[in-house]
Each structure stands twice: as C-alpha cells, then as structure tokens.
Automatic annotation (TrEMBL):
Keywords: Cell outer membrane, Membrane, Receptor, Transmembrane, Transmembrane beta strand, Transport. The keyword Transmembrane applies. It is a multi-pass membrane protein. Its main location: membrane. Residues 133-254 form the TonB-dependent receptor plug domain. NCBIfam families: OMP_RagA_SusC, SusC_RagA_signa. This is TonB-dependent receptor. It holds the Pfam family CarbopepD_reg_2. It comes from Odoribacter splanchnicus. It comes from the Bacteria.
Amino acid sequence: MEKFVKNLKRGGLPTRCWLYMLILLLSFGLPASIFAQTDLVKVTGTVTDETNQPVPGVNVLLKGSSNIGTVTDIEGKYTLNIPKDATLIFKFVGYKTTEVAVNGKTTVNLSIQPDVKQLEDVVVIGYQAIKREKSTAAIASVAGEKIENIPVPSVEMALQGKVAGLNVLNITGEPGAKGIVTLRGNTSIASQDSRSTPLYVVDGIVMDEGDLGQIDLTGTNPIAGINPNDIESIDVLKDASASAIYGARAANGVIIIKTKTPKAGKPQVRLNGYYGVAMKPTMRSTLVGTAERHLKMDLIYQYLGKPGMENVNYWITDSLNPAFNNHTDWQSNVIQKARIQNYDVNVSAYGEKTSYRLSYNFYDEEGTVIGTGFTRNTASLYLNAHPYSFLNLTGNIRFSEMSRKKTNGSINIFSTWSFPSSFFKLTDEDIENFKGNNLDELDKNLNRDLYANFQANIDFTPYLKWTTSYSFGYSTTRNDYFIPSYRNNGNAYATSSSGSVKRWEIENYIQYLRSFKETHNLSVLFGQGAEYSYIDNLWGEGNYIASNSIQTIQGVVSKNSNASSSIEERARLSWFARLSYDYKDKYLFSANWRMDGSSRFGKDNRWGHFPSVSAGWIITKESFFPENQVTDFIKIRGSYGITGNDPAGFYDAYRALTTNVDYRGGSGITSYNGSGTIAYDFGSAVTSRELGWEESKQMNFGLDAHFLNKRIILTGDYYIRDSESMIFNYALPVTTGYTEAKNNLVSVRNSGVELQLSLDLLPHNWDWSWTIDANIAMNKNQIKKLPNGNRSIVTGSPWMEWILTVGRPLYEITGWRSNGIYATDDDVPVDPLTGNRMTFFGTTMQAGDIAVVDQNGDYNIDYNDKVSLGNPDPKYYGGINTTVRWKGISLGVFCNYVIKRTFWNGFLSDRMNGGVYSAGGWGNVSGPALDFGGLKYYTTPGQQADLPTLIATNHMDNRHIAHEIYTDNGSFFRVKNISMSYEFPTALVNKIKLQRLRVYGYMDNVWVFSKSKTYPDPENINTNGYANGSEYPLPHKFTLGAEITF
C-alpha cells in the first residue's frame, strides 16, 4: 500500500501506462480529406440573435465537408471561401441549427432562433454529453431554472420531488443542516441512522462526502456550499449503465451538476436578490391558560383517588392563587420570526477566443429558534480560452465559506418536556433566564471549501479528441462548543475540533467519434485516472474553565483537559472505457468498463472491475411503424451493470501500530526506562485482510415515449439492484479476545418502478401555457443475506429496537403488536394451565392496559413477543409541479408526497409517560399539558378507549414506545412551494438600457396534510423513524425578489 500511495502522491504513473496511450493514439491514425478548390466564392455575413444582438462563437460549417468551417467573431461576423452552390450550416448551443443555401450570394446573414428544447435534448453522462434520444441509460434531468430562487440553502432540498426515484426528505428545519437523500432505496447497513448517499460531481469535480465526513463534526451540509442559482442543469444517473464509468464511487447513483457558462451576445451583468421571512413554525400542541386548567381539572376529577393523586399542588385548583390565571407560552420565548436574504451578482462575456463568468453569492438565513442560523458566501470563476482551432482550455474555481450557529444539544427545546406549566408567574428577568438556560450554549461551526478544475481539450482531427483534467479540493471545518457552568452543574466546559481534507485527481482520456456513410455511428472513449486524499483532524476539551466569559480551552490544568489528533491517507488508481454504437440512429448499444484500485484494501483484493452494457431500440424510426400525428417517439431500453464501493475504514485491512504513551506526558505500558512502548494494537476489532469491494449489480428496463409533438412525454423504468458483499461488523465470542470483526457479509436488494409524466396542455400559438410535471416511485427494500447463517440482528436499546431480518427491509422498527385497550379485568386473557391472567414481564395485566398480542402463546409478554411494526423508509414518493403562464406572468405550484411510511410517535408516548401527576413536575397535571383533544384515553372500567390509562403506577408499562399504538402513519402530502413572477416586456426594458427585468415571490413549505393526529409534520422526524417532538420544526417561508440583467 505504501508504494501505491507514494506513487500517486507524486502524481507519477507507470511508464507503460503512457506507452499504452501512445499506441492507442497512433492506432486511430490521422484521417484527412481533400476538397477541390474550384468555383469558389468568398462569402461573408453576420449572425444575430432574436434581439438583433451579434452572436460570437457560432459554428459556420460547409455541409458535406468535415474540415471546412469557421466561427463568428466578437461582432458576430464570419468569412468563408466555398463553392457558389454550397449550403452553410449554422450551429450554436441553445439555438436551433439552421441550413442556408448560398446560391451564388456573397453575403449571407442570419438571425438564429433560440431552441428551448435543445438543452433538454442533451444529457451529461460520465466524461461525455450525448443526445437524450440516443441514451440507453436511466437518466433524469432538471433544468436550473426549475430550482432558481427557491429559499433553501442547498441544492438537494430544491430537488425534492422533481426526480422519480430520488427520495429527498427535509427532516429538520435547522438552517444549513443535512437532510436525507437516497436514490432507488437505501443500502447502508452501518446503523439505523445511516443512509446511502449518491455521488455528486460538480463541473467535473467529485464531491466525496465520505472524505468530508471524516472531518466534519459540525453537521453542516457540504453540498450547501453550491449556490443553486449558479446551476445550469442537473443530470441524475440512476442505473449502472450510466454510472459504471464512475466505478468505485457510483454504487448509490450519481448526480452531475453543471454550472452556468457565458452566453452569446454582449457582456452581461446580472443582479438577483430576494428578501423574506421564515414564520414561526407549527409547534407541538400544548395547552396554556384556561384551556390548560380545564384539562387538568378534568384529569383530577377522572382520576381522583387513584394512586399518585394524593398531593396535587394547591395552585391548580385555588382560584385565589396569583398563578391561577397565568398563561405563559414557553415555546414562544425561544422561537422567532426569522430573516432570509439572498443576493447574487455575476458578470459574463462570450468571445471568439476567450469567455468568462464571475459570480458571487451571499445567503443568510436566521433560524426560527433564537441563536441559530446559517450564512454562506460563495464566489466562482469560469474561464474558457480557445487560442487555436484545435485547442480548448477551461477552468472552474469555486470558494465557499459557511457559518452555522446551533443551539444546545443537551436539552430538547422543542419537546414539551422542556417547558414548565404555563401557570407559573415569571418576571421579565425570569423569562430571560429561561431563554438563557435553553439557548446559552455556544455551538459555532465554520466550513471553508476551495475547489478547482482545469481541463484541456485537443482536437487532433474532427474524429479524434484528447482531454486532460486536473481537479483539486481543499476543505476545512471547525467546531467550537461551550456550555456555561450554570448549565452544567458548576463545570464550564468547552471543546474545539478542526479538520481538513486535501484532495487531487487527474484524468486523461481520448475519444474517437466517427460516422460512416451516415449509417454507422461510433464513439470510443478510453482513459485513466488517479486520486489522492489527505485527511487530518484535531480535537481537544477542557473542564472547569475559570470564567464563563472565556468560552475556549484556555487556562485549564492538564488533569482537566484532553486532546487527540489523527492523519489518514487514501489513494485510488483507475482505468475506464466506453464504447457506443448505433445503426441508423435506431439500434443503440453502449458498453462501459472501469477498473479501480483502492488503498483501503489489501494487495490481494485491491482491484475491482465494474462493467456494464445497455441497448435501446427506437421503434418509431422503423419503416413498419405507421406515420401519424400522435406518436412522435418510442424507445425501449435495457441495461445491466456492476458498480462498486469501498466504504471500509482507511486502514481496516492493515495491522496498525500505536503508541501507549499517555498524552499528559506519563507512560502507559513501559518496557525501558519508563518510556512508552510501540506495540500491535487492534482495538476491539480483528483486522481482516480478506476485506474487499462491495458490489452493486443492477438491471434496468425502460421506456421513453413522446406524443403530440412532445406535448406529452412519458418515461418509465423498472429496476432490480442487488448490493452484494457489503461490509458489516459482526460480533465475536469473548474467548477470541475481541468483540467484533469486519467482512463482506451482507446482501440487500432494492427493486422498484418509476414513472415520470410531462404535459404541455395548451396550443403553442396561444398567449397562455399550462404545463404539468408529475412523478412517482415505488421501492421495495429487502435483505438477502446476513452473517451467522442468516440469523436476525437486533440493534438499539430494549425500549427502542430495530431489526435486520432476511426477506425484510433494512432496520425495520420492532415492538409489541397491540389489539386495543382492556376495558375490564375480565378482558385480560387467562392462562388455562394456571388460571392466572396474562402478565407483562411477570406483572399481571389489568383494565386500562394495552392488549398486547402474545406471539408465542406463553401468557407472558416479553422481548420474545416483539415483531416488525413497519419501515421508516417510504414505499411510494414523488412530486407534482404545475405552471400557468400568460404573457409575462407565471404562477407555479409544487407539491411532494410520501405514502406508506411508519414512524414512532415518541411525542405521544412521552406525554402518556408523564401520567396524571408527578411530584417532579412533568405529569400532565403538574407540568405542561398536551392537547388530548380527539384522543380517547382510558379513565373508567368498561370504557372503549384508544389509549391506555394515564396512571403512572398502573402495573404494566403502558407508555413504552415499543407498543404498536405509538407507531404512526408517516404519509403526507405537502404543498411545498407556490411561486409567482412577472417578466417585463423586452421592448420596455430595452428603453431603460436593460436586457431583462423580472420580479418574483415564493411561499415555501406552505401546508402539509397528514393522518397523524398528534404530530404536526411527519417529514420532520429523525432518520431512524423516531420522533419525540424535539426535532427542529420546518418553518413557513415567504420571499420577494427581483432579477435585473444589464
């Protein structure tokens, strides 16, 4: 491994690698063509756009010739010597390709027309862009304009519900925090909290979240450093035929982001900004004032005389008590109406030889919880130089700084448990102290990222192209945490952590593109790549800091401090190839291959091979297909491929040396003069040299169809993805001296169906337009293999467990099946052998208890009676977007939904756990009161209730979260955002020396519909499916903005 890493650090590759490339290059040859130089005429002209502005960079080509042509200059002018009866072809990205017959003329001018569908007809795959109709892979695209100006800090939040099969859940309303993003189901087995995240590639730069996760203790979303308004297009590579070219990094799919580049015409300056507010979110439903008192009096009357009700505080019933009529709303003291602001400025110019785009973005979002917020500064630079006709140079540089403030993590300030009764009468000083107790902890987070990509493209011939690409990334993160002494039992405590990732990647590849007799179309790509990552971390803590004003690890004696640091390195070497062929543009074939070598594995398992094949058939181009005005295009396609993953730890496959010297200067195990020894230390896990690649084998069948001149577009896919040889930690017998080992032991299958439908409903010659985009995805997750003879594995704690079982989804929540509430003691089943009523862990059950299903028939409920209660990952999910336009006015509504998802409603079980009264102050009489409206809890014998008794001293533990009655329906339908905009007429804005003027407004997170009776938002739950009311709620946002282009 050491030699492998050192070679890559030096950027060196074996001599034979370069020799192979040279042989490949020479084998293609340098074809040339000769054109008779007779009857030529000098033709000149100017190319303009729809606003009569000159367009530089337009390709002007002689039809029928492969090597005669030119490009327009900065003034849109061109000159060519061509036959007088020739035909010119004008091509430019984003505009319709136009053919013009010369017919002996010496001047040929053209006004090119924009082609709004052209960008939609091109998809970006690994290392190439191809026509969508020729794609044989499952690829979904989202135009940048679909996500512009949505008031979210990160691009993946804007993608929610827009791509079939891409499941995006915004589980927290905390600004800058991560959400859940999975593509075609979850495959992560690390824990019940983990999810498999797609690979992000931004302008050719790989965003390796695995590396970033090694240093990030802030919880900040690394993708949030990208300004969504800078994005031109997003292509989501779903199946292995599209993503296998990325090999070891593409097991969970690939999201390719292409940022904006300069457009033809005069230099442009674009200003864009919006300002708005995040409203106070829907809080957990509690009662205050008179409503609270009425509920508590009802509880007292219903349970009077029951155990635990002997010492109810007098102020609850004494109307002469000053606190009797108080109504302090504790939740409102820690939340606020928050500010959101976003400002963009970019300058761009497109020239014949040089183009550039410079962009800056400032985004600032206050949290709706006082003391939280997220701020981002992002600057990016795009440069393109075309010094020679055969050479094209491109550079992309992006810098971002993200600052994120958080509240304390030791108290759940959104849970009603954090608040006392509203009856307590407090002064303003008391209220401020209450805020301080909940908000005074310092949790500052700072992330800085610098990414750069430089690319050189050489056209040896019209058919043979060479590309060299170099990418560099440098990310740093820092977290400072402090808790004052009055919040921590007199101990002022601080921690500080920082880390950095340095990463470089170099890729070289050659492409051969050729058409033969306009029948056979061939594309061959072959290349190699190398990458290297260096990761370092530093962490320290200090106890009993001298003053609450210091808030850092300063002046702490050694016995009250601790520190650690680490350095890790990773390297990967790759070879890749692609062959694409089509016959008459209707029979399509593509094959990909990639070989990756990873330093994470031992020498015998270092290399992984990842091939894929795909094919397609455009039926509508067959002669037997009847011509009609309804069906424009039908293509069927299929693919099979293998992608890989190397999620092992950096050194899991190697035997590590560690020192036993104590960090304070003392010694651990000593062997000579008190000095620390260096010895083999495996920790608690056994090193596994057999550790190897995880593999994802995926099969996909798809259909693409267009009707009525693309007025109706339908895309459907069916897939089966088997994730095999997944790395898993499994327990070892204590006699081995270790607790666990790691190996390739688990297999998981995801299968499903995806449908995407686009409708353009009104005639194009109307002033009105109405479009609808809708998608739905169904995913079935299933474990196929587990270690130790496929025995089920239970994780978590006894009161909240998840289970892995062959044939079932990953990490299902488990518990006791419920069959209602016992109305009387006689309803409790009786063991015919003993004559005793059923027991719960040996305690006799009675009226008011939950009727738990006895799975094994032994008349005693225990852990052996637990079963699967549901899956926290949704089975169906998708989105619906509709837009209506009339002249310059546009109105859009976007909704997303989730169907068939189960979660634990800990908010409800916690309140039941409070009982009626407790001297500690957290009962439903003595503490804050949950709104029990619409809930039927047990109070009197014979009552048919939905919830058990509130008596905390009842014999059975009725408030245990593991009971089925505390599982809830996580399905929801959300009106995600509503947008409205007006674009002023071009003729009007030109009079004031502007190119474009547009105003707009957004409402985000407008409304949510769900079946949960007690939980306000079923999307706002933890990754593992548990929600106790402490999650940061999702706010409602309202923004207004304007866009001006000079």
